[in-house]
Amino acid sequence: MRQNSTFQNLLGKISREEFFEQYWGKEFLFLKGIDRNNYLPISENELNSFFSNSRLSYPYITLFSKGKPLNFEEYRNRKMGINSTIVDIDKVFTLLQKGYSLTVNSLEQMEPNLAEFCHNLSHELKTKIWTNVYITPCERSGFPQHTDHHDVFALQLSGKKTWTIYPEKKDPLQITLEKGDFLYLPKNYPHEAKTGDSHSVHLTLGAEFATYSDLLYQLWKSVRSQSKFAKRLDPNNARLTPTEIENFQKMVMELMQENKLHDFKKSSQSVNVAQGPFTSNKRFHDWLSTEQLSNNQTLCKRKTVNWELKKKGKMIELQFEDKKIPFPIFLEEFLTSLCQEKPFKLKEINSKVGDYEAFKIAKLLLAEKFLEIKK
User: Which residue stretches, if any, does this entry annotate as coiled coil (predicted)?
Assistant: First the structure.
């Protein structure tokens, strides 16, 4: 699979292989911004634009103090109605100045650029990705020591924040994140964070990787409609009979064949990935440009797409993310040209494919978010 890695942008000098071998699910990882080109998926300007929206709502916007939520009535926008969930953004920032901490939950659902980032990262890591932004004034503590039931990737967007982490069988360790710094914590890793003489704005990426229990869930889904598993157990016996045990073990072993287990894992990952939203920040523009597509427009493959062309008899599949688009095998050369890294124009592609068919394929791949129109 050809790769342009969003995840590698997060890791900087640390390779993906090193991360999964040494840190993933095992140990924390702290990286200074300079070691990862200070890469951040959202800017201060984008956050400023976000907060200019007068219709932000609760619980996406939540205020806290010492880990406890502030009653929403304190910042509800009553001008929008007594039952409105719209927040009064002026009150929100007044309370922030008074020392309350502000959390923006699931920011990727409202910020298209961040949504695309999460979408790409989700497909790379085969798991659901979501985001929260935490804004904390000076000299404030966030949540008391706690653990999260998912992996955490923290990126410092502005100011600085000191994290205290609690490695197993080791003394607590303090790490101060400054703008551009990165911290990874596996799930269930105890931690707490607070600010000192500086404010803090940091982005947290949550990642919930598939587990063995997900395999069991996929196994259950696969058998619940099968008649042999719908066979009733004898209600007259409190315990399973030897025959029932033998039959059940035999049916389960048939399901536990290696190829089926691979399918269960893929299904678990696909479910996780599908839960992540993707909102284009150019949806109308993309649709209009696709409708008006011409030979002179410049196209390019979306940068973070991982793809593969796979031959299947008289067909060839373009596989990317969780999609498989079949084409006749004679289109292989033309498809390879569309997958190139450099921007191109359809008229520049040397192919025996006619204009009508070329436009049809290009429009399909634009709609499927494989290609994009370059300005």
Answer: none
Structural domains counted in the chain: 3
17 in a structural domain: yes
71 and 88 part of one domain: yes
Distance CA 272, CA 210 (A): 8
Chain center to CA of 276: 6
Give tens-digit pLDDT for 248-262: 898 888 877 755 666
Report CA 195 to chain centroid distance, whole Å.
27
Identify the CATH number of the domain in which residue 140 sits: 2.60.120.650
pTM over 0.85: no
- What span, in angstroms and rounded, lies between the C-alpha atoms of 38 and 156? 10
364, 299 Cβ separation under 8 angstroms: no
Q: Tokens 């940068």, residue? A: 303
Q: Per residue in 103-150, pLDDT tens? A: 999 999 899 889 989 988 988 898 889 999 999 999 998 788 999 999
Question: What residue has token string 């889904």?
Answer: 221
Cβ neighbours of 367 (radius 10 Å)? 12
Note whether 229 and 158 are same-domain residues: no
